[in-house]
Design brief:
With 137 residues, the protein is mostly beta strands. It has one domain: Acid Proteases (Cathepsin D, subunit A, domain 1). It is 9% helix and 48% strand. The chain is built from two helices and ten strands. The strands form two sheets. It has a six-stranded mixed beta barrel with strand order 1-2-7-3-6-5. Strands 8-9-10 form a three-stranded antiparallel beta sheet. The longest helix is centred in the N-terminal third of the chain and has 6 residues.
Length: 137
């Protein structure tokens, strides 16, 4: 199992909710959310607008061309009983992604503490000790 979180993503006047994978190997210089083209389309970011920059990123599978939208979105984690604060994020649109991916710095901004990647357990840093949350379906 992995840690997946329900996110509310806002770009301008468009708001969607989606499940995103917390990827500890997604190291980024800024808080970033990598999204597939289908999510970009729902947010009005596909086809690429004038705000997008085509860049090449290094991945485990080699170099990949993506579209970067700097500081274009606000993201928060939504649970049954709590929400994180809003985080301002860069959006990266990947033609190969099949689900949104949360970068290391975005996880920090959202104040996520992973308790067990294998069991899909996590908590907000300000949750009471012992409070465990389960990965989103």
């Amino acid at each position: 199992m992995a840690v997946r979180l329900r996110l509310r993503i806002r770009v301008r006047d468009r708001i969607i909710e989606d499940i995103a994978l917390l990827n500890s190997g997604f190291e980024a210089p800024t808080p970033q959310l990598l999204i597939p083209i289908s999510t970009a389309r729902a947010l009005g970011l596909w086809p690429p607008t004038e705000d997008a920059r085509e860049v090449t990123v290094d991945t485990a599978g080699g170099p990949l061309k993506v579209w970067l939208y700097a500081r274009v979105a606000k993201v928060k984690v939504i649970t049954e009983d709590a929400e994180s604060r809003d985080a301002e994020v860069d959006i990266i649109v990947s033609p190969l992604a099949d689900e949104p991916l949360i970068s290391d710095l975005l996880a920090d901004e959202l104040e996520i503490a992973v308790e067990s990647f294998g069991k899909g357990l996590w908590r907000f840093r300000n949750d009471p000790p012992g409070k465990l949350r389960h990965s989103a379906e």
